[in-house]
Description:
Layout: E1 4-7, H1 20-35, E2 40-45, H2 54-65, E3 69-75, H3 79-85, E4 91-97, H4 104-107, H5 110-116, E5 120-124, H6 147-159, H7 164-173, E6 180-181, H8 188-196, H9 204-213, H10 219-222
Parallel strand pairs: 1-2, 2-3, 3-4, 4-5, 5-6
Helix pairs in contact: 1-2, 6-9
Amino acid sequence: MNIVSKLEPNAFDGADPIEWKKIAVKKAEESRQRLGVSRLYAYLFHNARYIFDPKAVEALQEVKEHQIADRIGISIYTPNEAMKALEYESVKAVQIPYNVFDQRLNQCGFFERAREQDVQVFARSTLLQGLVMMNPDRLPENVRFAENYLRKFLEICNRYDCSPLEAAVGYVRHNPKIDYVVFGVDNLKQLQEYLSIQCWSMPDQMLEELKAAFERVEERLVNPSMWGKGR
């Protein structure tokens, strides 16, 4: 079992940069011990803003130097953060938001550069916080703006006789430049349902239709922190 852990979001805040390496190593070691493993597979920044500070990245690299983790990396939210992460030779793992509605990283060349630099890509937000599984007739007020997008998605699903879950997961799994898909479950039933669709393969024509349908979407659709806000 390979385990990935993350540095606390504000771990360096208020501390002298001279102390950052000690903090990173201490936090990573504490995490390793709590998890009961001899070594972490990867250790990531949870707070993406640290990627813009070379000293912070150097501090995280110390975790690998102490052999607490095999790789270091970051969990990002925007294409700007993703491309910045690839500027560091030491960054070898990037967790990204990626789903049928979010094609931003397809369009900026991230996947090609990540593969060239041997950076492992972990995709999260496959279901976009559950939005792709919602009934367009019963959307909460804060995501009602997404109704037309969701109806278009369901229309394509119906045409190919597949469930929204199959389509959402299949879309992400179809990208050969994604190494791992991150997903969460609340119970065994959900886990079994998720695993049961792994053998389903998305038709190429369906993939192309989904790409064309959502090639350009408004930012708030793919950024849950903006849900409920105006344009």
